[in-house]
Amino acid sequence: MAELSTLARPYAKAAFEYAAGADHLQGWSTSLALAAAVVAEPRVAQLLSSPSETSGEQAQAVIALCGDQLSAPQQNFIKVLAENNRLPLLGHISSQFDVLKTHRERAIDVEVIAAIELDDQQQQKLSQALSDKLERKINMQVSVDASLLGGALIRAGDTVIDGSIRGRLAKLAESLNS
């Protein structure tokens, strides 16, 4: 069976192209995330797997649960997904849509795990340095993990920069054991 992300890709691209053309990327991103959360609920997932429910009934159930948060084009998108038995893929579609959105915006999500709390000035300097290095707008989330002992661990997409003391000690131990 094809991988779920492969099945979700054409739907994410179609939604992205429509949203980009309508200059409504953030609204679509929010709505897709909401619909994905609705579909992930166990009772809704059970409804979607029930053979007694038609695709139209499944679509209407998801649209009703989303309330008035979905525009007419977004509701039509949900209906198309239901007709093609792809409603369970909404989580993958939403994730891929967000990746396309960040590429369009020339932005990247960066996770910084520091050994100690970073003040605003340190965060700003780090964000600027990463922005210069990666040539993108940085959306940075900072958390603290005292087990790093010192330094920081930075994840930006596929790039990982381990500047932590714990990471350096692990490399040293590895080189001593080989």
Polypeptide structure, described:
The protein is α+β, with helices and mostly antiparallel strands and 178 residues long. The chain has two domains: 4-102, N-terminal domain of the delta subunit of the F1F0-ATP synthase (Peroxidase, domain 1, Orthogonal Bundle); 107-177. It is built from eight helices and four strands, in the order ααααααβαβββα. It has helices at 4-21, 25-40, 42-49, 55-66, 72-83, 90-104, 120-134, 165-177, and strands at residues 107-114, 137-144, 152-156, 159-162. Strands 2-1-3-4 form a four-stranded mixed beta sheet. Helix 1 crosses helix 6, helix 2 packs across helix 4 and helix 4 packs antiparallel against helix 5 (72-83). The longest helix is centred in the N-terminal third of the chain and has 18 residues, at 4-21. The radius of gyration is 21 Å and the shape is elongated. The model has no long low-confidence stretch (mean pLDDT 91).
Classify the fold: give the CATH topology of the largest domain. Peroxidase, domain 1
In CATH, what is the class of the largest domain? Mainly Alpha
The computed structural class is: alpha+beta
User: CATH architecture of the largest domain, please?
Assistant: Orthogonal Bundle
Keywords: ATP synthesis, Cell membrane, CF(1), Hydrogen ion transport, Ion transport, Membrane, Transport
Pfam family, one: OSCP
Membrane topology: Peripheral membrane protein
Family: Belongs to the ATPase delta chain family.
Layout of secondary structure:
Elements: H1 4-21, H2 25-40, H3 42-49, H4 55-66, H5 72-83, H6 90-104, E1 107-114, H7 120-134, E2 137-144, E3 152-156, E4 159-162, H8 165-177
Parallel strand pairs: 1-2
Antiparallel strand pairs: 1-3, 3-4
